[in-house]
Amino acid sequence: MALVLSLLLLARVDSNAAPRVNSSPAKFAGAFVDWGPVGRERTLQAWEKWLKQPPSSVVGVDFYGQANWEDFHKLTWVPGIWKKLNPSRNVVWSVPLTVPGTPLVDVANGVHDGEFEAAARAIADAQPRAIIRLGWEMNLSQMAWFAKDHEADYIAAFRRVVGIFRRHSDTFKYDWCPGWGTQDTPADLAYPGDDVVDYIGLDIYDFKHEGSPEERWNTFYLKAPFGLEWHRDFAARHGKPMSYPEWGVGNFGDNPYFIQQMHDWFVKNRNNIAYAAYFDVDGLWPTRISNGQFPKSQKLFGKLFSR
């Protein structure tokens, strides 16, 4: 009787904790990786081996060019490289909704349908089940498709491009993905509609903020406007799974606490998350976790996200 009561008490005490799992599923172990000598696929295979995930089980992330329309169009060969190296790999394609100098209204009115037709055809031929992350981080002012004061144009452009992609594959999934936090405009004003969205994403990085890692987690990530709790609730209201196409440490430095909390958030909400992908490339700031520059975070990441 004493043993039973003890077990019941322990279960009650731990009832609010993130569910414990013995291994991390592949859907949490995706990544955007460096090109390497022959293509991202080879680098992603090494990533999978590091995390002991089954071959071809994690999603890769890649980006179409966004500097101008020539840059956009010339990358139509890249999906084929992924397919050549591994036809079993599925890819999250981050597709710009426009480029600098072209207003969203032009895309909404069909002026650049040809560019999107070419991209849709190339991706459909290589990854017909791809996830199309269209016009991501529309709430950040540096994006060419920044939606502030142009929400109707953003929505119309998003819906038009989804229509183009659907003509080339009926198994594409579409990911609408703001950046976390308040940023430069409320993201939900640019939501394009449940009929053209399959996943509701959120990009989230550990930035420099005041306070301890614990305080910063609660203030700037978990409970912030347009943070993790908002993301969970917004996706639930629309009946959509969540996704995390970009996340990582680096701007603040080596922070294993952030790694642990993100992992626990994924596990706690695992039934409502389609996929997550770590940004394992140094971009505007260092974020790569596989090269030893963040040793504490790397060690914990390897432990938590291994199969």
Explain what you see.
With 307 residues, this protein is α/β, with parallel strands linked by helices. The two termini are 37 Å apart. The longest helix has 16 residues. Strands 1, 2, 3, 4, 5, 6, 7, 8 and 9 form a nine-stranded parallel beta sheet that branches. The chain is globular. Helix 4 packs parallel to helix 6, helix 6 packs across helix 7 and helix 10 runs parallel beside helix 11.
Number of strands: 9
Order of helices and strands: HEHEHHEHHEHEEEHHEHEH
Strand content: 5-15%
Please tell me what the overall shape is: globular
Averaged pLDDT: 93
The major sheet is characterized as: 9 strands, parallel
Taking the alpha carbons of the first and last residues, their distance comes to 37 Å
User: Rg, please?
Assistant: 20 Å
**Helix/strand class:** alpha/beta
**Which runs of at least 5 residues are low in confidence (pLDDT < 50)?**
1-20
What's the helix count? 11
Helix content: 25-40%
